[in-house]
Amino acid sequence: MHNEQHFSAKSSESNTQTALRFITCGSVDDGKSTLIGRLLVDTKAVLQDHLAGVQRSGETDLALLTDGLSAEREQGITIDVAYRYFNTEARKFIIGDAPGHEQYTRNMVTAASSADAAVVLVDAIKLDWANPNLQLLPQTRRHSLLVNLLRVPSIVFAINKLDAVADRAVAYQNIAGALQKFAKEAGITVTAMVPVSALKGWNVVDSQPDWCGYTGPSLLSILEDLPVTPAETDVAFSFPVQWVEKFHDSGVTTQGRRVFWGRVATGSVEPGQTVKVFPSGQTAVVSQVLSATRQPQNKAAGHSAGIVLDREVDVSRGDWLLAEHGSPEGQRQLSTTIAWMDDEPLVAGRLYWALHGHRWVKARVQRVVHRLNVNTLAEEEATELPPNAIGHVTLTLQEPLATLPFAQSRILGALVLVDTASHKTSGAVLVN
Q1: CA 421 → CA 256, 350, 355, 425, distances in Å?
Q2: Model-level pTM?
Q3: Which residues are CB-neighbours of 264 under 8 A, at least 6 positions away?
Q4: CA 357 to CA 377: how far, in whole Å?
Q5: Could you give the CA distance from residue 202 to residue 117 in angstroms, rounded to a whole number?
Q6: Which of 24, 58, 5, 403 minimizes the C-alpha distance to 240?
Q7: pLDDT of residue 388
């Protein structure tokens, strides 16, 4: 296992100033809630009176700290995505606790879409750990494939419950070997692997030196060094307009009388740059870029900005400002991968609202091309997508959208489908 060396080299150039958003995933009863409870308790993020409330026969039940809904406590499973916050001296963290059941795939997709990292928990006692050719659980494979499909930048495997097996070193070696083999076949880049006992707290916050023959950092040390999702500065400038503010008293005649506020999606913007308005196609030159406190400041992807152009052009909420060259052209037909979240199945012919940035357009389902087997991502023939399914779908749009493939841009390549009648979010769309 060379992940220790590989890891430290990677982490030295990372941006660890910002809060890290990570999700925990894996099969049911792998100990996700216990692991999160352990992180919260050992980093002193839990108040003593809160701890006193989760005692069971003299022991602290860590899982009860995180399974907040009464229905979750009754069933002993996590249903919804719960976000927890904690921090160490090194950085702040936001944890999304994603459910393990297949029928909650949509919740898992929601949590993963904005995550910087995923901790995939693997339960050693559910596996034939003494066998060098052991089979992983379908849930482990499925969650790893899903977080990879959703382009979560860092994937960490935490092999849990090794305190409960007879030969820890052999179990860790065999399970780690099976994970490496699976990751290689699936094209998944593994950031790190770490043996842990969430129950005992070993290797979670504090290192347990040479336990299971592992000499690398604890899980928390790994998380402290992970980079946040890099801003998409290598893609041409794009900016979805969220709000238009009028300067009624502006005496300046060399520029337009409105400020366009929003967040820079990709690339960067500075005065003197020529931009085109999508969908109208008009062009103008940027005369000012303002910060939230109205100070002139160049802005890169991920930052909010106010943009003033050199002349009056017709721009309203939902329009995009794009780089004059190298920007995506508007498209009326999209080949997509959709994670279906509605209780009504997705079928050809249905009409939905599609939201891209702040732009709403009508979208018709032209064809369900394949359904992906969520456990293997193999393509299967299908005519509809039931709830929690993922598939390849062709969409036809009433008006064009300027999209890029999701593989190039997590922002320009993502849309949301909304039911026209109930206004429920129906699907998460990744452009192929």
Answers
A1: 39, 12, 15, 11
A2: 0.84
A3: 237, 238, 239, 299, 300, 301, 302, 303, 304, 305
A4: 28
A5: 21
A6: 403
A7: 87
